[in-house]
Amino acid sequence: MSTTNIVIMIAIGAYLLLMIAIGAIFSRKNKNTDDFYLGGRKLGPIVTAMSAEASDMSSWLLMGLPAVALMTGIPEAFWTALGLAIGTYLNWLFVAKRLRVYTQKVDAVTLPDFFSKRFGDEHHIITFVAAVFIVIFFVPYTASGFAACGKLFSSLFDVSYTYAMIVSAVVIVLYCTLGGFLAASTTDFIQSIIMTVALLVVLGVGEAVTNGMGNVFSNVKNLDGYLDVFKGFDVSKSTVGSYGALPVASTLAWGLGYFGMPHILLRFMAIEDKKKLKLSRRIASIWVVISMGIAVLIGIVGYSLMKNGIVPTYADSSSAETIIVDVAKWIASHGYIPAFVGGVILAGILASTMSTADSQLLAAASSVSQNLVQETFGKKLSEKKAMWLARICVIVISIIAIFLALDPSSSVFRIVSFAWAGFGAVFGPMVLFGLFWKRTNKWGALSGMLSGGITIFVWKFAVRKACAGSILDIYELLPAFIIACIFIVVVSLITKAPEKEIGETFEAVKAECKADLKEELTKA
């Protein structure tokens, strides 16, 4: 192994050891499963904001988004990023506080648990269906994170993709099983900082090498549609397609996914002081806008780097997902200090992946151990046994995800987009209606979940394939979200209204949130 690679390994190794150390430290603070899955609702506002967004952005931010911008130009990357920025802000603005208040009021520590108590589902049917959907979509989502780690180390050190992916997964599993939610949230906060440093360094180096952003944009301005947000550009075919209202709406629909993301919603539930959510919202929204903007610019700079031979000529978006890895390798080849900087950049990519995978593992494990085993199937466990079951579930789900990640050719962007659509359609409408429409009942909620989930699969694997290139060839989240909303409203109205006690709890939560808002406005 070269000296450069040794320096890079030292930087990455120090980062990995820090993550495991954090897991060991927080393992002492997990007294019960509430602590393990929700951190005892002890998160501060800054950790809440940054851990939520780090777990949200994942490897998609440092691998998927720059690759899309590089290979297709501004349109798809811009509208996707805009939809996510809007969705982030609205989720913090409307959902965060009410969900925090509601889950504490009904004593719920997981999302399926909240659904069951909100809708008075004594037989835990909603809990069961919600937990199954979480496992269905989170396992491949986690696998995409493991795959991203495998691609990183395989590309960097010319080692087996399989071994690299497994080692990365083991580190994630270690600090998750040790420290639970508090460890995951704290490491996510640190990882968000490392991700930011990596983005800034890569953009700065790319701009310097290409002699300024003026040259960067002059290199792509003659690519028809590359910089036009209303047109799409296909590098492989060199053709331009219309990017009209429906495609734009379809891409913006990424923002709808936020309302149903369990690993993000859990952060809202875990903050120590609900009054600090306003600060969290501001921090999260600003970071998301800046980080995605930089990621898109890196993709555009990547075109000039590709033309100058600094990075390889990529064949498609999947291969272009290593753009930041290749830039880091180029930086590292210029001496020991640059090698350490390159190692920090690569640690940032690793951080972006791990920050999501750890949250997904905990959410999926809680669905199996808490919602399925203990609540749905009625297995009563002591706190000690429940903690062991939680840790075992993390390990088992990780093993399944590792098997799914064995294919190195899988695209991070495609896997994430499908899982994102699944959660957005299955849980997003139910969260919104459950928090803001008193009349929503358990049958409406159940039909919304099922119709949203089924539509995702049907639209993705049947409609879009059969109608490729037509008006129906749109991101599956948009039609599935709309259909789920329709089912919730119609079924809730034609079936029995919720029990009086459920309505009273809803009104109590509404009144508390209204009082908090009035207090905020008075102080302002």
What keyword list fits this structure?
524 residues; two-stranded antiparallel ribbon; 19 helices; Sodium/glucose cotransporter; mainly alpha; 2% strand
Brief account:
The protein is an all-alpha fold and 524 residues long. 77% of the residues lie in helices and 2% in strands. Strand 1 (231-234) and strand 2 (239-242) form a beta hairpin.
Give a structural overview.
With 524 residues, the protein is mostly helical. The chain has one domain (3-408): Sodium/glucose cotransporter. It is 77% helix and 2% strand. The protein has helices at residues 3-27, 33-38, 45-72, 74-105, 111-118, 125-157, 161-209, 213-220, 245-252, 262-270, 277-307, 317-320, 323-332, 336-376, 383-404, 412-436, 442-466, 477-494, 500-523; strands at 231-234, 239-242. A two-stranded antiparallel sheet has the order 1-2. Helix 4 (74-105) crosses helix 10 (262-270), helix 13 packs antiparallel against helix 14 and helix 16 (412-436) packs antiparallel against helix 17. The radius of gyration is 23 Å and the shape is globular. The model is unreliable at 232-243 (pLDDT under 50).
